[in-house]
Design brief:
Layout lengths: L8 H11 L6 H8 L5 E4 L1 H14 L3 E5 L6 H9 L4 E4 L2 H10 L4 E4 L6 H11 L3 E4 L2 H10 L7 E5 L7 E3 L9 H11 L5 E5 L4 E3 L3 H17 L5 E3 L16 H15 L5 E4 L3 H4 L3 E11 L2 E4 L19 E4 L10 E7 L8 E9 L7 E4 L20 E4 L22
Parallel strand pairs: 1-18, 2-3, 2-11, 3-4, 4-5, 5-6, 6-8, 8-10, 10-11, 13-15
Antiparallel strand pairs: 1-12, 7-9, 12-13, 12-17, 14-17, 15-16
The protein binds pyridoxal-5'-phosphate (PLP).
The site of pyridoxal-5'-phosphate (PLP) has 16 residues, from α11.
Length: 412
């Protein structure tokens, strides 16, 4: 990947910040560098603590879904928090994770893979676990691994549309009958057989996992084969303004209860969290370039780090940072944003609540952007990728069941 990276004082700052024992705060960074390009503010301590808590409380293996945020500093922080399994979806992600962590267990969890990606993953990067949702993909995996005798294969089950903000039911997953046939066909070929699903991202209902596990149980019963892995996928939610999910523990309780009901004592549970591990771990600081009524023209947008604020219309927590650290006494008002590109679709309706006197030159920190933020940025219209710095701040929003202020060792 080539990024437009203009020479920038922040590059030096990033190096200092990442290696410093106690990173600076967001406000210190902004007051000292007064950035005119957007900056990502990574919270390594938050990432570490969030990962450590998920790993400790989930009764099974935690596979981080790399696509959600593949930044090397993010992956390092999750590793430090105890994550050892990685859910990769491309040859690039597999090579990235293997390059950073020789001892990581990598799972190739995209149901439709390039033949070359299967070969590379198996032969160069020691990947043994592959997901599939069709007979064609099963044949492809067997051919490209030379009919390997040491494979773990996971059959992805399709789910009916559920109660998630992002529906993922349309693209992947075998219908029940086909999943049954795939489980039977794969069993004699593998050392490890699993069944997986994805309830959809930002899933607001813990019962969605119970329903999906019941369907997985039905597939397993009908197939009549031994099962080694039940993979409940991703979808674990975080807080956004006016959208507070049930505590993470409520999801784990439904999963464990429904898994126990399947009566598969020899099987292992896997989860593939993306958003839940990293959303609170990063924010982006943008600058206001122009104000027109209640619309602010800012220097990042839907072609940059704020893709989810565009058409998906996610709302994010926002706060003013004013030059010199001055505070605003003005009341909060609802604002919408335009991004920097010339496309009128580069629009984020929010609402984002900010002081009524906000003006050109002010900065805005926008939170909960560690998931599906920076990694979706393009170079459209000459606006490149934002720099990343490490900071010691808390998350901008607390998610129930995630580590609180008292559990974050910010100096570590
Ligand atoms: C995207 C994805 C995930 C992560 O989903 P979140 O909703 O971010 O937790 C997990 N598994 C698969 C197969 C995915 O495609």
């Amino acid at each position: 990947m080539s990024h437009i990276r203009p020479p920038n004082a922040l590059t030096a700052l990033r190096r200092t910040a990442v290696s410093a024992a106690v990173p600076p705060s967001v406000d210190e960074i902004i007051q000292s560098s007064r950035p005119e390009e957007s900056i990502h503010c990574l919270r390594p301590a938050v990432l570490r603590a969030t990962a450590a808590r998920f790993v400790a409380e989930f009764r099974g293996d935690v596979l981080y879904a790399v696509k959600c945020n593949p930044d090397a500093d993010v992956l390092e922080a999750l590793w430090d928090g105890g994550v050892r399994h990685f859910d990769c979806a491309s040859a690039g992600e597999v090579a990235l994770v293997r390059g950073l962590f020789p001892d990581a267990v990598i799972h190739f969890m995209h149901p439709v893979k390039a033949r070359s990606a299967i070969r590379e993953a198996y032969r160069l990067h020691d990947v043994r676990d592959f997901v599939l949702d069709s007979a064609e993909e099963l044949a492809k995996i067997m051919t490209e691994t030379g009919n390997a005798q040491d494979l773990g294969l996971v059959v992805r089950l399709g789910l009916p549309r559920g109660n998630a903000l992002y529906d993922l039911s349309g693209k992947f997953g075998a219908p029940l009958e086909e999943a049954v046939a795939l489980l039977r066909a794969a069993r004699p070929l593998v050392v490890r057989l699993g069944v997986s699903f994805h309830v959809g991202s930002q899933c607001m209902d813990p019962l969605a996992y119970r329903r999906a596990l019941a369907l997985a149980g039905e597939a397993i019963r009908q197939a009549g084969v031994a099962i080694d892995v039940v993979d409940v996928g991703g979808g674990f939610p975080v807080s956004y303004p006016d959208l507070e999910p049930p505590p993470l523990g409520a999801y784990f309780a439904e999963i464990e209860g429904a898994f126990d009901d399947l009566n598969l004592p020899q099987a292992r549970l896997w989860a593939e969290p993306g958003r839940a591990l990293v959303a609170a771990g990063s924010s982006v600081v943008v600058q206001v370039q122009h104000r027109r009524g209640d619309t602010l023209y800012i220097n990042d947008g839907v072609y940059g780090s704020l893709s989810d604020a565009g058409a998906p219309a996610f709302r994010f927590p926002a706060r003013l940072i004013r030059d010199g650290g001055a505070r605003s006494a003005a009341t909060l008002e609802a604002f919408a944003f335009f991004g920097p590109t010339c496309d009128s679709a580069d629009y984020m309706k929010g609402p984002f609540f900010l002081p009524a006197d906000i003006r050109e030159g002010d900065w805005i920190e926008i939170g909960q952007l560690g998931a599906y933020g920076a990694c979706l940025a393009t170079e459209f219209n000459g606006f490149g990728c934002a720099e990343t710095v490490a900071v010691r701040d808390q998350p901008m929003l607390q998610t129930p069941g995630h580590p609180g202020d008292d559990q974050l060792d910010l100096a570590a």
